[in-house]
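Student:
Attend to each token:
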Amino acid sequence: MSDPLLQLKKVIDALYPVPPADWEAFAGFWKPFTAKRKEVLTQAGEAEKYLYFVVEGVQRVFYYDEQNREATLVFTYAPSFGGVLDAFLLQQPSRYYYETLTPSVFLRAPAPELLALINQRSTLSYMIRQGLTNTLSGVLERLVELQCYSSEEKFKKLLQRSPHILQLVPHKYLANYLGIEATNFSKLINKVKI
């Protein structure tokens, strides 16, 4: 495994390369953190205290409604950012949970310090805005899929976007993410040519 800070820099450079002084300031906040399997890192009702950068492992953001129905909203895995982003940026209580599905290794940065730095440095602010714009674009695309696509089309789209996901994430969570019954998800795995 390569140096986690180098992995983070590579992701940042792909979003929007920042000047060396801004990178040094940004990189200084990130500390190693590990979590066990099925560990809830962010509870609904709590502010998101950290922004995570996933080095190893798989996590999910999920929601429980008043009837205890569960909705898996997003998966995170290396190399990507993780956590409940709206709660992080707004510093308001989260409506969602952030949970590890496998043992996980992260870098994490504390919210108050990182947000203050981002507000002070325009290149970091722009880089974050680029990342959020990409994320919003993906969310809008996912909404179209959920509302317009058949179960088979949603499954195929997921495999086009993330062909490795079947090996990373337990199928019950993938079925939930797609809004498909687990038995129908199993049928799709057998039916759709991968």
Summary: DSSP finds nine helices and eight strands in the chain. Residues 60 and 103 are 13 Å apart (CA to CA).
